[in-house]
Fold this protein.
Amino acid sequence: MCCAGAPLIAGALGGIAVDPLRRAGHEDQDADLRPARHRRAVPHAGHPQFVYVAAKQGALVVANAFQQAARHISYRSMPRITFTSPTIASTGLTEAQADEAGMDCECRVVELADIPRAIVSRTSTGAVKLVAERQTGRVLGVHLLADGAGDAILAGVYAIDAGMTVTDLAESWDPYLTIGEGLYLAAQAFSRDLSTLSCCAV
Ligand SMILES: Cc1cc2nc3c(=O)[nH]c(=O)nc-3n(C[C@H](O)[C@H](O)[C@H](O)COP(=O)(O)OP(=O)(O)OC[C@H]3O[C@@H](n4cnc5c(N)ncnc54)[C@H](O)[C@@H]3O)c2cc1C
């Protein structure tokens, strides 16, 4: 209960082997960056280590244990953000994961150099990738490498949660001069040649 997303500290578990950087496994790569009280012994929970995952899991445990709520958590659209420069943000399946799961998928990649916001900001290193089920066009994954990707990824979370298709995205609104526009452009790229579109991508 005290540790939903992250594992317990070693002392409490009775001496679990860790390396000189106090790492117990590949999921603990940032162990050396943390204050001692946050160092972990072993990633026993095995779940993605994000604060919002821990919060959701903690609330679920309480509800299920004390209120017989029988709730469950879906990780299908869980966003993953890495605050590098540029930021990496993902939701849903990567192309490799879709392949591995035996799904027939189709992808489009739009380079940041083709997204007006990035051109204006002169930060054109990166890309937006959309993974969709080939037959239905259902959005399976959204991946951004861009400054501002962490803010834009929520649109991808909603698209996956709502079962939207690339056609739905392409027919939705295009928030011109934002990084979020990359999702719209990637959706357009499933059916059109982007180089023929007007400045507002219609
Ligand atoms: C450097 C760093 C940066 C991060 N950045 C982000 C980010 O930007 N976004 C994001 O979503 N997530 C981030 N995370 C991950 C996020 O902090 C964790 O996934 C989340 O805090 C896990 O929550 P938790 O409640 O399970 O564990 P914790 O927040 O670690 O809480 C566990 C608590 O249990 C206490 N405890 C441990 N053992 C015992 C014991 N035996 N007895 C009593 N108390 C004990 C600990 O002191 C701690 O207070 C980051 C993590 C680190 C280390």
Remarks:
- The chain is about 30% helix and 15% strand.
- The chain has two domains: 2-67, 80-196.
